[in-house]
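Why should sequence recovery work at all? Because a backbone constrains its sequence more than one might expect. Tight turns favour small or flexible residues, buried strands favour hydrophobic ones, and helices have their own preferences. The token representation captures these environments compactly. In the example below, the structure is given first.
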């Protein structure tokens, strides 16, 4: 009986300690944003897309995981105004030529591994799903926490054609000239999260 009581006591306090050691920071969707940038042979465009939900998990004060859902309907173009084709380009980006938003309203990123560097820096590997297609990506990130408020910054680029975004790509279309769109899309992430 004493052994059973002792085992129950140990199990209970182990669970409490595990809970204390783990922290979850939930994304503040009003303050977080992903800036995208696409380039053509001549010029290019940039804008924002919003994070719909997500979190980062910590164990013993070390980043241990996380995932994010991106609202593809929120994609906007910020380098144009209405007179110069802002709405037209936004509609094109939502079409099947690019992100097929009607069929795939969200994209997702899930962390699969983490390497801690110095000065709050990490190397993050994860699965990025766009248009239902998933590929692994890797990028550096900086994470700072103060007063239960987390701010993370990261920048990475992808080859869009791996996610079946082929419009204007020189890999798939000939004689595009200066209408060719480069395959790399650059993403700059500002993530704010709170306990």
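From this structural description, the recovered sequence reads:
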């Amino acid at each position: 009986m004493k052994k059973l009581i002792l085992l129950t006591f140990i199990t209970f306090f182990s669970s409490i300690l595990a809970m204390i050691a783990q922290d979850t920071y939930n994304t503040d969707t009003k303050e977080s944003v992903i800036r995208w940038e696409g380039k053509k042979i001549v010029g290019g465009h940039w804008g924002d897309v919003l994070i719909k939900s997500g979190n980062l998990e910590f164990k013993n004060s070390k980043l241990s995981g996380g995932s994010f859902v991106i609202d593809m309907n929120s994609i906007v173009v910020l380098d144009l105004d209405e007179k110069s084709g802002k709405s037209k380009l936004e509609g094109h980006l939502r079409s099947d030529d690019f992100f097929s938003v009607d069929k795939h309203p969200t994209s997702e990123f899930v962390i699969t591994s983490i390497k801690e560097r110095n000065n709050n820096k990490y190397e993050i590997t994860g699965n990025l799903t766009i248009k239902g297609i998933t590929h692994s990506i890797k990028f550096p990130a900086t994470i700072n926490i103060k007063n239960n408020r987390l701010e993370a910054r990261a920048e990475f680029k992808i080859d869009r054609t791996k996610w079946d975004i082929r419009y204007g790509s020189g890999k798939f279309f000939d004689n595009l000239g200066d209408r060719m769109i480069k395959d790399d899309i650059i993403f700059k992430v500002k993530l704010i999260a709170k306990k």
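A few observations help interpret the result. Confidence is low (pLDDT under 50) at residues 12-19.
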